[in-house]
Design a protein that fits this description.
By secondary structure, this protein is mainly α. The protein is built from one helix and no strands.
Length: 60
């Protein structure tokens, strides 16, 4: 069983719309927790840096 040209176009349209929704979700999911340029704290220069930074939850 093969698809007619109209069915093929309809299928591609639906898949492109779903892909766009998926990309939109991937970009904006959790973006409310992002650090914005004005929100970053400037560390106190008189304090010593951590010798072992906390890397829990980070991946490469």
């Amino acid at each position: 069983m093969s698809l007619t040209p109209t069915q093929s176009v309809d299928l591609v349209e639906v898949l492109v719309i779903l892909m766009g929704i998926g990309i939109f979700w991937a970009v904006y999911y959790g973006s409310d927790r992002a650090e914005l340029p004005g929100d970053a704290t400037i560390p106190d220069p008189s304090q010593v840096d951590d010798t072992l930074p906390d890397t829990r939850g980070r991946t490469l």
